[in-house]
Amino acid sequence: RHLTDISLLECFIHLRYVDLSENKLQDLSPLSNLTHLLWLKVDGNLLTSACMQELPYLQIISFAHNHIEDMEGITHPRLANLSLKGNKIQTALGLSHGKLFSLQTLELRGNKLESTAGLSLPKLKNLYLAQNAIRSLEGLEGLAQLTTLHLRDNQLQTLDGFCSSMKCLQYLNLRNNGISSLQEVAKLQVLPMLQALVLLDNPCSEEPNYRLEVLVLLPHLQRLDKDLFEQDEQAEANRIHQERQEEAK
């Protein structure tokens, strides 16, 4: 509707669900009176900041496809699901960790992040970071409850940064990065629950016996590049693993 002014909404203090997508909004301050708000969608506007007055019951926000450059000022204590997909965010260091203790899903696809520093959120379960410019993995040790991590279409060449405190991570998508060696894949041995891994479109996926070699390194893996491991593959990988252990003695 090409809205630029939503000051009329200040009167509707009991609104719980508000969708203001595809307008021309630059200012959300009139929403600060809506203290009962549970769900807010403001995709496709002209916002340059996600900063808002703290709303006590807000659980879901989508700021997708705006012009937001940082993550400052997001402080809603019950926020469980936050999307900032398709913005211009270069760093996550402005996140208010002390306030976002309910956040479980964070969507940051299609931004300009170069690092994961600042994303250490204790309750986070799903983190979507595809289509950024991430070169380094930092600050992941605080993601103790994370189960799903998407890093497709980034610029990772090494897999330093994963750690044993990520004891719930089950699904990891690294498709289309710059991981050239299976020695880097061996660094994922610190992830005790990893079950599904995607490495397609990395140079290492062209190595001979690639599937088998990954399974030798990560014997608990159940699925690689969408395909389940067969029993005979698991048996063969186990045999090779034991042989190499014997040789190393």
Radius of gyration: 21 Å
Number of strands: 11
Q: Helix-strand pattern, N to C? A: EEEEEEEEHEHEEH
- How many strands, which pairing sense, and closed or not: the largest β-sheet? 11 strands, mixed
Shape: elongated
Uncertain stretches of 5 or more adjacent residues = none
Widest sheet: strand ordering? 1-2-3-4-5-6-7-8-9-10-11
Helical segment tally?
3
User: How far is the N terminus from the C terminus?
Assistant: 72 Å
Average pLDDT rating: 96
Approximately how much helix is present in the residues?
10-25%
Task: Walk me through this protein's architecture.
- The protein has an eleven-stranded mixed sheet, with no helix packed on it.
- 12% of the residues lie in helices and 12% in strands.
- By secondary structure, the protein is an alpha/beta fold.
- β8, α1 and β9 form a beta-alpha-beta unit.
- The termini are far apart.
- The model has no long low-confidence stretch (mean pLDDT 96).
- The relative contact order is 0.07.
- It comes from Zapornia atra.
- Pfam families: LRR_1 (PF00560), LRR_9 (PF14580).
- This is LRC23 protein.
- Keywords: Leucine-rich repeat, Repeat.
- InterPro entries: Leu-rich_rpt, Leu-rich_rpt_typical-subtyp, LRR_dom_sf, SDS22/Internalin_LRR.
